[in-house]
Each structure stands twice: as structure tokens, then as C-alpha cells.
Amino acid sequence: MREVMLLSFIVTTIVSISGLVHYWNPNSYTLSNVYGNYSHKIYFFFLVNLIGMISILIYEYTFKDLISLLLLFTLALTYLMVLWISEDVADSFRFKSHVTLASIAFLSVLLYILYHAYTKHDPLLGLLFILSVGCFGRIISIVVKNESPDILFEEVSMIILVLLCAVRRGGYI
Predict the structure, then answer these.
(1) Given 57, 87, 89, 163, which residue has the most CB atoms within 10 angstroms?
(2) How many domains does the chain have?
(3) Average pLDDT for residues 111-136, to the nearest whole number?
(4) Range of 64's domain?
């Protein structure tokens, strides 16, 4: 069951990232403009990510670790809410909501990785935590400077970091 759920999460992540890259518009401010344009694409990508988040929550549930499950649930909920929001104007409520929810989601990623690096005493997860802090610092500096975020430092980076941590936690790498 654990392997099937992790494979499902990996597949939905690949579909989501390839869809984002395919529909990426360099004139957009963030990747959520792809999700949040309220055309038929949003429903497909939202459902793909919903399946992925449910799969990773079931994967996490099989470890019977309540703290880790709570951190991942916070990430999954805020990530799905971030996908639903588009921000077209820098001072709009949607933009501020996006930044707030993305911050909560990324902090959940940081705590999730730190928790597993500490409990497993895994130096590679510790290195991944340092990389995650660097990505989060980069996102904050971009938002403070009012620059357009890069594709690498948006929603995709959150999911890739969780994927790496989950795979490492399960002992697959």
C-alpha cells in the first residue's frame, strides 16, 4: 500500500509539473496564474493535485506518526488552497492570500523535513533542510523586492522537496 501511494504521488507530481511547464507563460507573475485562470485547466490540475495530496497523506498515515501526518496535512491543505488562488494585481487580496498561504505551506515543508532529519538522524535530510531554507529565503527576497518569482522557486519547489523527503523517509533512496 505504501509503495502504491508513493507511486501515485510521484505520477501526479510529474503530470502537474509537466502541465505547468507546458502552459507556462513568461508574462505571468507566478505559476498559480496557470491554475487560477478559471478555465477548464484548473479543474484538471486541481483534481490531479488533490489525488496526489490524498495519496501522500495515506502514505504518511501508514507510518503511524501523528506529528508528521499533521505537518503534511497542513502542507496539503494550504498547497491546495494556494493552487486555487490566482493573483493578478500585486496589492490585491488574492495576492496577499497567496503569499500568506504559500508561506504557511513552505513552513510546513521546512518543519516536515526538519522533523524527519532530527528523528532519523539523517545527514541527507539535514542537507535537504538547509537547501529548503535557502529556497524559502530566496522566495522571501523575491516577494520583498516585488520581482516576478522564477518557476523553480514557486509551488513546484514545495512539492519537489516533500517528494524527496518522503522518498528518503521511506528508505527508497
Answers:
(1) 87
(2) 1
(3) 94
(4) 2-169
Residues 6+ apart with CB under 8 A from 103: none
What residue type is 22 in one-letter code?
A: H
Does the pLDDT of residue 38 top 60, yes or no?
A: no
Mean residue pLDDT across the chain: 83
Alpha carbons 132 and 114: distance in angstroms, whole number: 10
Question: 47-53 long-range CB contacts below 8 Å, 24 or more apart?
Answer: 48/12, 48/15, 48/16, 48/19, 49/12, 49/16, 49/79, 49/80, 49/83, 50/80, 51/8, 51/12, 52/8, 52/9, 52/11, 52/12, 52/13, 52/16, 52/159, 53/79, 53/80
Of residues 111, 52, 101, 55, the one with CA closest to residue 79: 101
Residue 25 banded pLDDT, cuts 50, 70, 90: low
Q: What is the pLDDT of residue 7?
A: 95
